[in-house]
Please model this.
Amino acid sequence: MHLFVMIVLAVCLCRALPAAVILIPNAAYLDPATYIDISGVPAEAGVSSISGGNFAIGFGSHGGRACAPGLSRRTWSEAPDSQRLADEVLPMLVFDGSGLIFTPSQPVTLFGFEAGPDNFGEYETTAGFYYQHVGVDSSIRMVNGDGGSRLFATDSGPFDSIVFSTTREPLALGAFRDAGAEITPVPPAMSLLLASGLIGLGLPGRWK
Model:
C-alpha cells in the first residue's frame, strides 16, 4: 500500500514540474512528431483549420497559404534552426493580426511549428501551451523576417490550446507537427492538489 502511494506521489510531482521547451528541430523532436502537410491547401485561400497528423488544428482566424522561399516569403530559416533544408520550399500560412489561438481537436502531448514575421526586423514572439486554461509550458523567442524564423514546440502535454502572440504582424507559420495524447490527461491543478494532499498525510519512516 505504501509503495502504491509513493508511485502516485511521484507521478503527480513529475507532472507538476516545468518541462523544457524544444528549440531546435532535431531528431528527438522530428521522429515522434507527425508532420502536418499543408501543401495541398489552395494558395491564398482563407484557412481557419488544418488536418493531418493526429488531429485537426483550428486557428480562430483565417490565413492564406504561401511558401518560403518564394514570391510571397523571400526568406526563411534552414537547418538546424528549421526542418527546411537549403534546397527545399516550405509551405506555410500567413495571418494578419498579432495573436492566434490554436485548438487541437483532442489534447496532444507534443506540438510544434515554425514562425517568422513579415518584416525584416527582430521581434519578440510567444507561444503559451495550456490544458484546461492552466499554463503547461511557454516559449518566448526573438524572430527575424530576414531568415530568422524559429521553432516553437514542447512535448510537455497534454495540452488543448496554444496561444501565440507577436509584436509584429503579419506573421507566417509553417512546419506544423503533433503527437497524440497516449495517457488520460490529468489537470495540472488536480495533480498539484493530489500531490500536496499526499504530502500532508505523511509517510511512515519504516516500510512494512
Remarks:
- The chain has one domain: 20-186.
